[in-house]
User: Fold this.
Amino acid sequence: MEESLMLYSKIKEVFQMGEVDVKTYSPLTLAFIGDCVFDLVIRSYVTAQGNRATEGLHKSKSKLVKASAQAEMVTRIYDRLTPEEQDVYRRGRNAKSHTMAKNATMSDYRKATGLEALCGYLYLQDRMGRVLELVRMGMEEQQ
Assistant:
């Protein structure tokens, strides 16, 4: 795997973090880090479309990271997930969260949480290439 895609390994090395079995993490812990991973991918995509005012960047980003957009994305790509990935997604989707995003249905919020859990799971396994592949597939289907 390309070094640039092994960000988590580099973070672990710099901060001298030990190994952890990511399969033991709760789905909400996976979603916590996965939210950031997904957001970084989308922010990178939006920023690459050109230098512009941050307000415009924020609006473009928000259209793609809101719960309803994430729910649509995971619905489109679900059949392309491996059985392991589907299991992680379902665990995240079914996790009992005590919060809910504004302007989102409970169904969309749970699907988005599942997608974020999957992104977190893959990231913590240094599988950013797979995260990027899934997000790209989801965005291609959308356009």
Q: What stands out?
A: The longest helix spans residues 27-47. The CA atoms of residues 85 and 100 lie 23 Å apart. The chain has a mean pLDDT of 91. The two ends are 29 Å apart (CA to CA).
